[in-house]
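COURSE: Structural Biology Practicum
ASSIGNMENT: Worksheet 4, Part C
STUDENT ID: 0417
INSTRUCTIONS: Below are two proteins. For each, the amino acid sequence is given first, followed by its structure token string. Answer the questions at the end about the second protein only.

PROTEIN I
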Amino acid sequence: MKLYLNSLIIGVSIIFTALIFANAFKNRNRSNEIISVTGLGKKDFVSDLIVWNGSFSKINSNLKEAYAALDKDRESIKNYLISKGIKESNIIFSAVNIDKEIDEVYDEDGNKTKTIFIGYRLKQDVQIESTEVDKVEGISREVSELINSGVEFYSKNPQYYYTKLSELKIEMIAEATKDANIRAMKIAENAGSDIGHLKNADLGVFQIVAQNSSEDFSWGGSYNTSSKRKTATITVKLDYETE
């Protein structure tokens, strides 16, 4: 009888010890469970800075006369822009670029027989940078008035920028983090647990695309400058322990 009791006690002890170790192992695994979530920050905004570029040129066999003609066009362009309300300080002219224009003559066999000097082509760029976005945008669409006055002006499409990107990015990171945290709490709630300590946080790339467009995102981040109205997005990935 004594031997039987001793065997029973030993058996119960073994079972109890096994249960303790099993429960500890189970809880250890539970404490190491991770919830990974990705939050999104998104913001629509309107550009507050416009950059508009154009160029004009003259060609003449006499370099001095070419310069004089180019100077005349430069004054016409400056006066036109000022008359439209652009501040002179916002008008920036580049240095003059000079190229020799030539014409090569070939015979019937395709051999070059001579080179004819046509003249000097002088080219100058002009840039308008302004926070008066709507005004400059409107002028860029009416530039045919300048061309009709006799100025050989080549206009490029305006480029649109935003001067408060740093503040915008901080605001969006906060929004994305909050979104990720809500997602993590919801997942934990559905699983019958709670979120614990934050183990890791990864910031995604900053994307700026045109509003309501199908513009593709880039792995390295995109920055649309062709549209005045833009949409910025950023993602934040968070890893939480569960309790």
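PROTEIN II
(use this one for the questions)
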Amino acid sequence: MANFDWHAERSDLAGIALLDRAPESEGIDLRAVRLYRLGRVRREMLRYGVDAVILSDPINIRYATGARNMQVFCQRNAPSRYLLLTAGKSILFEFTGCLHLGEGYETIDEVRPSKTASFVAAGPDIAAREKAWATEMADLIGELVGAGATVGLERLNAGTAIALKECGLTIVDAQQPVEMARAIKSDEEMKCINASLRATENGVEKLRAAIRPGMTENELWSVLHQSVIAQNADYCETRLLNAGGRSNPWFQETSSNVIGENELIALDTDVVGCHGYYSDFSRTFHSGPGKPTSAQRELYKVAHEQVVHNMGILKAGMSFRDYADRAWDIPEKYYQNRYYLSAHGCGMTGEYPYLYHRGDFPDAGYDGEILAGMTLCVESYTGEAGGREGVKLEQQVLVTETGIELLSRFPFEEDLLG
């Protein structure tokens, strides 16, 4: 595959890599953020006995280095760019023509052109491409950490992983060390998370003000999307805004459905915002022009009670099992349509840990410890099986040594709380 560096002769690229130089970066030491995150990954690699990782998930690359490039494209076209990370070296293999985007980061020692080992790039020569790619990578890893290294992989196609193993490497999954690294946030990192939340809240306020019966779900949802993108967000990860009968059950994607009068409108933001951080809170609105019905207020109050109760029991040192046992009891008539999680980790996306409901714990749950520095999203979806409407509420919090700090500040609806 040909490799191009269209910017090789330019001399005016100073600072081009620092894409987060913008108003939302005021007061944030982004260099400290990047170095903290890189250090976290390296500490977890050491903890789990991993000599090197090859990261191709663009979110993990951004976490470890700060470098971003075509985030959505790279999620679909992996591994079009990838990062080789050892205890002493960080080499970013950047997409064709994009090497300049990796320059200027204290977290990246070297930028090289990527050699995409995928069927799309190689066609029927894919097996040969995978073997050549693996041989070259194995030789490089051998130079950096020695023969027979333990290498963590994620998001590489199976043929590439098999070829690396055939080169004498011990292959393990990179997910555990990377997820454990991402789980604990620094004080400076929290400034990025709060900047993303404030920008998303601005967008949700515009969305709320734009609500009119007669507009479609898509039209309303686009108000949020336009606002957050204008504030340097990356993308909205899901399409979760539903009105009226499409608000129950949950997880019906935003559509051309026309919003009617006096309907509930449920929203989950799921915004990958400025600095690449996930702004994840949920709110439910009323379309007017009349007042909410008693049934709508009841749904809202039940969802609100669940979120408030579960926020109130969170504390550092609590086990996941203990949290599940102490979490709010979902009334039987809402249990079938419950949200699949009680709470989940949140950083650059939804992440470790997943905290399950008591009834789901035997089949899906796993134990662990809630730690200070984790950011969690506390969830509720309330809607009866066969009912017409439902309510989605969610709050984002930081676990501290003494309790929790509320991060999402967008108000609840007073007319629905009653």
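ANSWER KEY EXCERPT:
Q1: The first strand starts at residue 52 and ends at 55.
Q2: Residues 187-210 form the longest helix (24 residues).
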